[in-house]
Design a protein that fits this description.
This protein is of the alpha+beta class. It has 2 domains: 53 residues, 2,3-Dihydroxybiphenyl 1,2-Dioxygenase, domain 1, CATH 3.10.180.10; 85 residues, 2,3-Dihydroxybiphenyl 1,2-Dioxygenase, domain 1 (Roll), CATH 3.10.180. Helices cover 18% and strands 27% of the residues. The chain has 3 helices and 9 strands, in the order βαββββαββββα. The strands form 2 sheets. A 5-stranded mixed sheet has the order 5-8-7-6-9. Strand 3 and strand 4 form a beta hairpin.
């Protein structure tokens, strides 16, 4: 088969998650993280977004009502990544998570981005991150992007909130 490359403006439009309890999922994605509820289908599904898009995340209980998370070390979704516009926006959600006493599973500086990691109530991984400006991305000597995983200084991130 001949190699194929996606068109340059292709994007990932949304993710659809199976959840055990729709209200519990909405408490996390809507009330805690701030996604807008665009529409619901009774107590079985909800479609949520940022900025009024038809949906960035679909949540449903069609095949998972009262279900359990997948076992560790199995295949499936690693995480959904939610891109924040600025570092200050990432700092604001970190502060909100701290105020809600919601636990992080990690935090990392990847050179091209800074990221917070947590699990939603169904055990789905969630990455909250912002991208540094492309001109600031570290590069290898051959010009390729140099990504890494280093400790993210959360106090330095929160300093973004001090005006």
């Amino acid at each position: 088969m001949e190699p194929y490359q996606l068109p340059k403006n292709t994007r990932i439009g949304h993710v659809h998650l199976k959840v055990a309890d729709l209200q519990r999922a909405l408490d996390f994605y809507h009330k805690l993280l701030g996604f807008e509820i665009i529409t619901t289908m009774g107590d079985q599904a909800a479609f949520i977004s940022a900025g009024g898009y038809h949906h960035h995340i679909g949540l449903n209980t069609w095949q998972s009502k009262n279900g359990t998370p997948p076992p560790p070390n199995s295949t499936g979704l690693f995480h959904t990544a939610i891109l924040y516009p600025t570092r200050k926006d990432l700092a604001q959600i970190l502060q909100r998570l701290r105020e809600a006493d919601y636990p992080l599973t990690g935090a990392a500086d990847h050179g091209v981005s800074e990221a917070l990691y947590l699990d939603d109530p169904d055990g789905n991984g969630v990455e909250l991150y912002w991208d540094r400006p492309r001109a600031d991305w570290p590069q290898e000597p051959d010009g390729s992007i140099q990504m890494y995983t280093r400790r993210l200084d959360l106090q330095d991130l929160l300093a973004e909130l001090i005006d």
